[in-house]
Write a sequence for this structure.
């Protein structure tokens, strides 16, 4: 190990590694789990090596882009750099330079005078609305690529679409962007990172909005409302997986890899680690870009990861939700840490904290001592070692789980919690959760409820149900995602939500929230409503001029058929139909 001053001076120099044939080889370091002292991480090395025994995940569908190299360079207020860049790109691309005012021609380029009103799309399919184009009123144009010198940039989201490049201020970085633009011609494919099950979506019903979690979290603006459900533009999706992490119902699922494949990795890693004599395993999720760089930089400083910390690379750390967090502990992990190295959207960091808090509230309530889930924020790797060293091993299960992680989010959480409960130091029947949690009960005020069943009609998860042929409201807590649609739909304000996790068999049993006797038509005796509903209607309409007579009030106590017959038989009665 080197001194602190030497570490600072030689941050890019990997010291001699004990027992390795190729000193300083990043691949060797990765194989050792980014642990500088291999003898401290032998169990980890064997665990990582055991992943080769797993079958490769099944392939996912692909999304195709086609670019013909038609690039728009938006000059903004940086006309000189934009002109120079357009000239360099013109050697291999079809370039249109757009600037405000008089735009001098650039050899090999089309020069337009105007400004961008709107810009949308992605690689190969950008659509721009142009104002005051060459003195005309405006026009629409399509491009394959966009290089934007505007301030502020035309796309303000954290992660703009593929094919769009914000021009960097540094000359070297700009040259790198220009080189990438020249290569962005042809047909490209990426994975379809998500799977969406519309039938589970709790976004809205009948114009009333319930859940907007996926729309709010998406940093690429790929998700938008579409009636009662949402719509995802697969070309805009960049695969962060945050939508699946925050989705309460599991309607949005992550596919790269699927939860079942990630669960198999976790189970294999932890089983092999225990078999090799390892203890207090801490799974560290990191991405393959700045997260991997942070681990390499830590090793270069001569520190590296502690022997018990097992790194597991993922496409994006925002995809690590409570299904994987809880499953990892059920498989025997002491802790799960997620490394945020700086590229993550602030909204992703917030969402990860909230999901970790949810998972921690469960394991803590069951008596497992310690901190089991940690978000390690280490921009450019700064603070990584300190953040990990601060994590003391936490209590875990006596017996590791053998269940398979389901691709259905709520089923995966259910299996993990059941295993944690079986091994729990402290048995619980119910765990109180924070407001906004995706588990809980619906509480109905029977005095207010008229059993109109609007709530059952609005419930997207079949958690609220009618009594079939009886005036009854039933509730199945296992299905409830606490979306609030029932609460917002209820015309009597009779519903409140109580977030909690019920751990008894009653969670799978439908229970009656309210019931009453049916009200029978005063003429034909056919049941057509409930006593409370009819009484409420009589109370509200008694002062209305159209229902002030005993005959009119009696009509409110008739079924629809008898009501029409009675109206037609009383021809002298005042009616809104008469002029």
């Amino acid at each position: 190990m080197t001194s602190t001053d030497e570490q600072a001076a030689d941050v890019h120099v990997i010291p001699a590694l004990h027992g390795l044939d190729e000193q300083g080889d990043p691949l060797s370091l990765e194989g050792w789990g980014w642990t500088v002292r291999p003898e401290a991480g032998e169990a980890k090395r064997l665990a990582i090596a055991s992943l080769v025994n797993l079958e490769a995940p099944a392939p996912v569908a692909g999304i195709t882009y086609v670019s013909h190299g038609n690039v728009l360079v938006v000059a903004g207020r940086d006309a000189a750099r934009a002109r120079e860049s357009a000239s360099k790109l013109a050697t291999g691309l079809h370039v249109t330079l757009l600037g405000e005012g008089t735009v001098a021609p650039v050899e090999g380029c089309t020069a337009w005078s105007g400004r961008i009103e709107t810009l949308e799309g992605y690689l190969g399919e950008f659509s721009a609305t142009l104002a005051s184009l060459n003195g005309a009123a405006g026009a629409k144009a399509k491009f394959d690529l966009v290089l934007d010198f505007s301030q502020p940039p035309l796309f303000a989201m954290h992660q703009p679409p593929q094919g769009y490049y914000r021009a960097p201020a540094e000359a070297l970085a700009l040259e790198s962007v220009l080189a990438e633009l020249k290569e962005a011609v042809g047909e490209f494919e990426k994975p379809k990172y998500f799977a969406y099950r519309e039938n589970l979506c709790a976004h809205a019903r009948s114009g009333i909005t319930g859940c907007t979690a996926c729309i709010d979290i998406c940093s690429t603006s790929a998700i938008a409302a579409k009636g009662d459900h949402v719509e995802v533009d697969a070309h805009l999706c960049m695969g962060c997986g945050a939508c699946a992490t925050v989705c309460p119902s599991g309607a949005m699922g992550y596919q790269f890899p699927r939860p079942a494949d990630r669960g198999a990795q976790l189970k294999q890693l932890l089983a092999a680690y225990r078999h090799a004599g390892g203890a207090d395993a801490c799974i560290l999720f990191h991405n393959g870009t700045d997260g991997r760089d942070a681990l390499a930089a830590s090793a270069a400083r001569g520190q590296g990861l502690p022997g018990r910390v097992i790194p597991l690379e993922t496409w994006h750390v925002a995809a690590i939700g409570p299904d994987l967090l809880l499953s990892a502990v059920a498989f025997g992990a002491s802790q799960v840490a997620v490394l945020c190295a700086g590229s993550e959207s602030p909204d992703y960091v917030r969402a990860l904290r909230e999901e970790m808090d949810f998972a921690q509230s469960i394991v803590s309530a069951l008596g497992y001592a310690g901190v089991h889930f940690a978000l390690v924020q280490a921009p450019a790797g700064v603070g990584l070692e300190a953040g990990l060293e601060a994590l003391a091993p936490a209590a875990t299960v006596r017996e590791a789980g053998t269940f398979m992680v389901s691709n259905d989010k709520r089923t995966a959480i259910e299996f993990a919690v059941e295993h944690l409960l079986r091994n729990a130091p402290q048995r619980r029947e119910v765990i109180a959760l924070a407001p906004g949690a995706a588990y809980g009960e619906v509480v109905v005020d029977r005095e207010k409820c008229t059993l109109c069943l609007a709530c059952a009609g609005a419930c997207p998860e079949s958690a609220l149900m009618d009594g079939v042929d009886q005036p009854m409201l039933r509730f199945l807590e296992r299905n409830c995602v606490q979306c609030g649609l029932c609460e917002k739909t209820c015309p009597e304000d009779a519903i409140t939500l109580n977030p909690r996790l019920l751990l008894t068999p009653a969670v799978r049993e439908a229970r009656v929230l309210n019931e009453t006797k049916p009200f029978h038509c005063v003429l034909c005796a056919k049941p057509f409503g409930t006593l409370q509903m009819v009484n409420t209607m009589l109370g509200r309409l008694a002062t209305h001029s159209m229902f002030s007579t005993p005959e009119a009030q009696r009509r409110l106590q008739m079924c629809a058929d008898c009501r029409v017959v009675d109206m037609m038989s009383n021809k002298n009665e005042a009616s809104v139909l008469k002029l």
